[in-house]
């Protein structure tokens, strides 16, 4: 019912020439997939993604987008530019953007709206820092973040939005959430989505888990009924581990 998505967030790794070789190798080695694969490289790599991955089973997208549509906004990249480059997805609200660039829920919602206006699918990230989990407040904290980040966001259908639960303490640490903790959070997120968009929508929207996903832990995470794939950082950079994740996703 919900097609598993394995999305590789490359963050600020690889240069365009390295990425071009990687994409060509991926194309050569890609097994037939029932799940969906996507790569999310840095902006300067997107033209290479378009050139090599267009027409393949592998979607691609960006890690961020401007909240502005067009104009005198030095350094910004618009949703329309991403659309022109053939992107299907863009991440919004990654914890690294929230933390290092002061992005608020309101700004994240604005960015999600810009993407939807251009027919792109936001991969909207939420998740709690360690001290919040230790206080036992992970669920209300993350649900509040979800609510604020979806303010005024009206996806036409459930395929037009992806949520990623990424506990901050699990990102790049080698310490992933247990499948049970991830499942409990995903259930709570789906319930909140049902309240906002209706039960039918919530049952079809994909909720990814992110945070130290690797080929050793992915199958257990995926076995949870409400975990619909992974937003993968480190383990998406090397082709063998990305391919291993795709094989586990089926
Ligand atoms: O967007 C991806 C996440 O931040 C996870 O990164 P990681 O797999 O390196 O922990």
From TrEMBL:
Which EC numbers characterise this protein's activity in its record?
Answer: 5.3.1.1
SUPFAM superfamilies per record? Triosephosphate isomerase (TIM)
Keywords of the record, alphabetical order, are: Cytoplasm, Gluconeogenesis, Glycolysis, Isomerase
Q: Where in the cell is it found?
A: Cytoplasm
Can you supply one Gene Ontology CC term for this chain's record? cytosol
- Described function: Involved in the gluconeogenesis. Catalyzes stereospecifically the conversion of dihydroxyacetone phosphate (DHAP) to D-glyceraldehyde-3-phosphate (G3P).
The protein here is known as Triosephosphate isomerase
Q: Give the transmembrane region(s).
A: none
Q: In which pathway does it act?
A: Carbohydrate degradation; glycolysis; D-glyceraldehyde 3-phosphate from glycerone phosphate: step 1/1; Carbohydrate biosynthesis; gluconeogenesis
Keyword Cell membrane found: no
Active site: residue positions: 94 (electrophile), 166 (proton acceptor)
User: Which reactions is this enzyme annotated as catalysing?
Assistant: D-glyceraldehyde 3-phosphate = dihydroxyacetone phosphate
NCBIfam families recorded for this chain?
A: tim (TIGR00419)
Q: Which organism is it from?
A: Thermus thermamylovorans
Alphabetical list of PANTHER family matching this protein: TRIOSEPHOSPHATE ISOMERASE
Assembly: Homodimer.
Q: What is its main location?
A: cytoplasm
A Gene Ontology molecular function term for this protein is: triose-phosphate isomerase activity
Which Pfam families does the protein's record reference? Answer: TIM
């Amino acid at each position: 019912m919900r097609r598993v998505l394995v999305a590789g967030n490359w963050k600020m790794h690889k240069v365009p020439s390295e990425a071009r070789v990687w994409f060509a190798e991926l194309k050569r080695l890609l097994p037939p997939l029932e799940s969906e694969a996507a790569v999310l490289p840095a902006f300067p790599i997107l033209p290479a993604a378009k050139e090599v991955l267009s027409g393949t089973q592998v979607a691609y997208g960006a890690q961020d987008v401007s909240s502005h549509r067009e104009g005198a906004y030095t350094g910004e990249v618009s949703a329309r530019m991403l659309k022109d480059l053939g992107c299907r997805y863009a991440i919004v609200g990654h914890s690294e953007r929230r933390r290092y660039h002061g992005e608020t829920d309101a700004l994240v919602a604005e960015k999600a709206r810009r993407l939807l206006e251009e027919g792109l699918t936001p991969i909207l990230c939420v998740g709690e820092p360690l001290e919040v989990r230790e206080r036992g407040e992970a669920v209300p904290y993350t649900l509040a973040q979800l609510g604020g980040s979806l303010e005024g966001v009206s996806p036409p259908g459930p395929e037009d939005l992806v949520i990623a639960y990424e506990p901050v303490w699990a990102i790049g640490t080698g310490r992933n959430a247990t499948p049970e903790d991830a499942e409990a959070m995903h259930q709570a997120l789906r319930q909140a989505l049902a309240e906002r968009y209706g039960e039918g929508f919530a049952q079809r929207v994909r909720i990814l888990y992110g945070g130290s996903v690797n080929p050793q832990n992915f199958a257990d995470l995926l076995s949870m009924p409400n975990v619909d794939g992974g937003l993968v950082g480190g383990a998406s950079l090397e082709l063998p581990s990305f391919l291993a994740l795709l094989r586990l996703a089926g």
